[in-house]
Amino acid sequence: MKIVGLxxxxxSGKTTVANFFRKLNVPVYIADDEAKMLMNTSKILIRKxxxxxxxxxxxNNELNRxxxxxxxxxxxxxxxxxxxxxxxxxxxHFKNWLAKQEHPYIIKEAxxxxxxxxxxxxxxxxxxxxxxxxxxxxxxQRNSTTKKKIKxxxxxxxxxxxxxxxxxxxxxNMELKNTKKQVLAIHKxxxxxxx
Length: 195
Fold this sequence. Notes:
alpha/beta, Rossmann fold, two-stranded antiparallel ribbon, 7 strands, globular
């Protein structure tokens, strides 16, 4: 079974692309969703996160995401410490999930696939790209956030150019009909590669 990494910058449309693969009956693992779930349920993670950020890290037994975000996006050292706590746990969770799958290939969607180094565990990589202005517009429509916050997140992520250099496939996600066609073409190629 091939592990196909799916990544892209914030607002590029990774989730949309992941959902197109799901509609083709491909098992999809969304690393960010699983990380959120684990940060709210794993006693070990909760303890380590509280040790790093203090009691304010959790509010009503839920991860205090605005508080954590305000701390890590202006402090790369703190961001790296957080990643060191969370990524090994997510990696273990992914391996357990993977063992239960029966398909020629699976998709592992992760925003920081390259930054975390987990791209090295993938057989091939798909990067989803869209121009910066489009991504900002999408995020402003989707979230109650500011341009400043979005740009801060973007500045902490790899550029599309850097991702493309290490990718086997690139999906230009500007128009849904065209994105769907690109997904289908890649799906067919992946099935052939997995034979």
